[in-house]
Design goal:
Blueprint lengths: L4 H25 L3 H10 L4 E2 L7 E2 L2 E2 L9 H15 L4 E3 L10 H10 L3 E2 L2 E2 L23 H21 L3 E4 L4 E2 L7 H17 L6 E5 L9 E2 L4 H11 L3 E6 L9 H10 L3 E6 L16 H17 L9 E4 L8 H20 L3 H9 L3 H13 L3 H10 L6 H7 L2 H9 L9
Parallel strand pairs: 1-4, 4-5, 6-7, 7-9, 9-11, 11-12, 12-13
Antiparallel strand pairs: 2-3, 8-10
EC number: 5.3.1.-, 5.3.1.14
Organism: Flavobacterium nitrogenifigens
Enzyme class: isomerase
């Protein structure tokens, strides 16, 4: 399905007067609104190809119909999102779920939708039909060198796919670990993983980055071989300048101070990017900002401060991507909500009075510092986010327009009610 400019123009015309009134009020509350709006226009959040179908758990998956049946249809769905919000201008592919059969045709299709290819993602947490060896006991950590070689070869293959598509980064997430005490030797597992990562790192083009993700638990529940940001940092520090840590917001123990982790990784120039989601109990992969919007704001507060301290480009120097599972929601609606929540948190962080905050910190004025941050968080910046969309030719209210033109119903008519997207 294609969304026309006429759809968007008509939708915006109906909401314009109310939006303009809100924008005037917001501008009276926040300084430098024009600079914030421009940063919001520039900011893009990649959509992962696996998030375009209905998610699920190990107990069940309830597809909603009209899911993309091919890589081409996944690109078309991200194009729909980007047309609605003009903030989803990249797609992140997962191999082997999304191997292109014709690189030129896929690049052309992506270009028609205004999309580029973000980080490539490898998969050594599942056995593939054509694989000789199993990853039941790990991949890059495995005691069997043949298994490690197979996993290394897969990652190098993913890099080659990415080169053809114009990607410039590889994300490695490992399910490696153990379920029971004594199952593996921690030191040997680390050393095997490091040696495997070194071979993958050596295959990177000069302009590429390797992002190493971490996870405290699941699918292994006694230990994971890249369990936290410190372990990821240990690996990427040894690998070299092209290796950095990737932070998934759901991959932490309860009540972890993610904003402090972000700050320190930025300081060390080892923060590569983000997988945005939200959680209540663990790696729930829920809609970004749905449960802990203040935490999301605090993370962005540290990101803005840290990136500005290093003179970084907010839009280009880190990788921004959603990693969510939409167990009972329409995936496209959920992704629109996540992008909106991320943009709101970013705008709030941009509105923080930095000079006043630094002064309060230097004077140990704890109350003043708290007031500055909470004032920014409690200020409604949605009009700034909507104005950024309006100036970009996107919809003032993407979810409302999506529903009014019945996108999901149209996709079901085109693709069928029983379609199932590739992936988990």
């Amino acid at each position: 399905m294609l969304i026309s400019s006429n759809h968007i123009d008509s939708h915006n015309e109906d909401l314009l007067k109310k939006h303009q009134n809100k924008l005037v009020f917001t501008a009276s509350e926040i300084n430098e609104t024009e600079a914030i709006i421009q940063k919001l226009i520039d900011f893009q959040i990649a959509i992962p190809s696996w998030a375009l179908g209905t998610g699920g758990t190990r107990f069940g998956r309830f597809a909603g119909g009209g899911e993309p049946r091919s890589l081409e249809e996944k690109i078309e769905d991200v194009g729909l999102l980007h047309k609605l919000n003009n903030a989803s201008g990249a797609i992140s592919l997962h191999i082997p779920w999304d191997i292109p059969t014709n690189y030129g045709a896929i690049k052309t299709l992506a270009g028609q939708h205004g999309l580029k290819f973000d980080a490539m993602n490898s998969n050594t947490f599942q056995d593939q039909a054509s694989a000789e060896h199993t990853y039941k006991y790990g991949s890059l950590q495995n005691v069997n060198k043949a298994v490690r070689k197979q996993a290394i070869a897969h990652n190098i293959e993913v890099i080659k796919h990415g080169i053809e598509l114009g990607s410039e980064s590889l994300t490695v997430w490992l399910a490696d670990g153990s379920n029971f005490p004594g199952q593996l030797n921690f030191r040997k597992a680390y050393q095997n993983t490091l040696e495997s990562l070194e071979e993958i790192y050596d295959a990177l083009p000069s302009n590429w980055k390797l992002f190493l993700e971490y996870k405290c638990a699941e699918p292994n529940f006694y230990s994971t071989t890249v369990a936290d940001w410190g372990q990821s940092y240990s690996y990427v520090k040894k690998l070299g300048d092209k290796a950095q840590t990737l932070v998934d917001l759901g991959h932490h123990l309860p009540n972890a101070n993610i904003e402090q982790i972000v700050s320190l990784l930025l300081m060390e120039n080892k923060l590569g990017g983000f997988h945005f989601n939200d959680s209540k109990y663990g790696d729930d992969d829920l809609t970004a900002g749905a449960l802990k919007p203040y935490q999301l704001f605090l993370i962005f507060n540290e990101l803005v401060e840290g990136m500005d301290a290093r003179g970084m480009n907010h839009a280009k120097d880190l990788g921004w991507m959603i990693d969510a599972s939409h167990n009972i929601k329409d995936p496209l609606e959920d992704l629109l909500q996540s992008v909106e929540a991320i943009m709101i948190a970013y705008a709030q962080a941009l509105s923080v009075d930095r000079k006043a905050l630094v002064q309060a910190q230097e004077e140990n004025d704890v109350v003043k510092a708290q007031e500055i941050l909470q004032n920014a968080f409690r200020t409604d910046v949605r009009a700034l986010v909507a104005e950024a969309r309006l100036r970009s030719g996107a919809a003032l209210n993407p979810v409302a327009l999506y529903r009014s033109i019945q996108v999901r119903q149209n996709l079901i008519e085109e693709r069928g009610l029983k379609t199932m997207a590739t992936g988990l």
